[in-house]
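Annotated sample (chain length 298).
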Amino acid sequence: MRLDELPRSDKVEDRRGMSMGRAGGMGIGTIILLVIVGWALGINPMYLIGGAEVLSGLRGGSQQQSQPAPGSAKTQAPPDQMRELVSAVLGSSEVQWKEIFAAAGKAYQAPTLVMFSGATQSACGFAQSAMGPFYCPNDQKVYLDTAFFQDLERRFRGCDAGSKGCQFSQAYVITHEIGDHVQNLLGILPRVQQLQRGMDKAEANQLQVRVELQADCLAGVWAHHAEEKWRFIEPGDVESAMQTASAIGDDRLQRQTQGYVVPDAFTHGSSEQRTRWFMTGLKSGEVASCDTFQATRL
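Output written by the structure step:
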């Protein structure tokens, strides 16, 4: 993946090297415990943490603040490879989605991407690296602990560690979250959240799978248009991204963590579904091709 021609974004908020201390009056150990409990019960950990923060606030008030970790006090972090990648991917997505929205008579509002290490605070609750990258519609920010990419390479074998193809895999992960932002701007996320309130867990999960597969497809749409404009994709890049999509499919992750697959517990789609929908967007370059809500075959 070539970054030279891609435009850079100034909407990158770098919180790496910042320590959360205590969040909402809770210690880090408590937060990690809530993450584990949420994972075991199939509950979004942010809901548990948010509730605990409310109770903690009622007892003693919020004391959460971000502060530099010991030995990391610097006026400005030097440029680094990961920040360059994030800025380039975000910048190219801003150009492409602005053009796509303009063609439909709409205005595109670019999100901010927050890079953090370990943990940070978002408008959707406490963000912890175990959650993986996510988009928060409340503040329209993408949250990314870059350690996730190390897990992707080493633990999930999402791409060949150290290869240039890993950059395109990382770009796929980032633009998937930007796809969620696009869905939010189009009013898709609010409508889905409203529908999910009246559903049981299995039905809500099925609807969430359609949301996430559409975001995969929208990531493909970005790649299609960015390739037409900048010719930045190199041999092996797409294969690496598909390896990543397969590695983070719900079925594969469930087999790795619990030894068996429970389709009703899927929230992002199977390995096959994720690769197929990304390729759908990549080949067509059309947002209309990403209508997973009307698709008879996911």
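Annotation: The chain has a mean pLDDT of 82.
Annotation: The chain has ten helices and eight strands.
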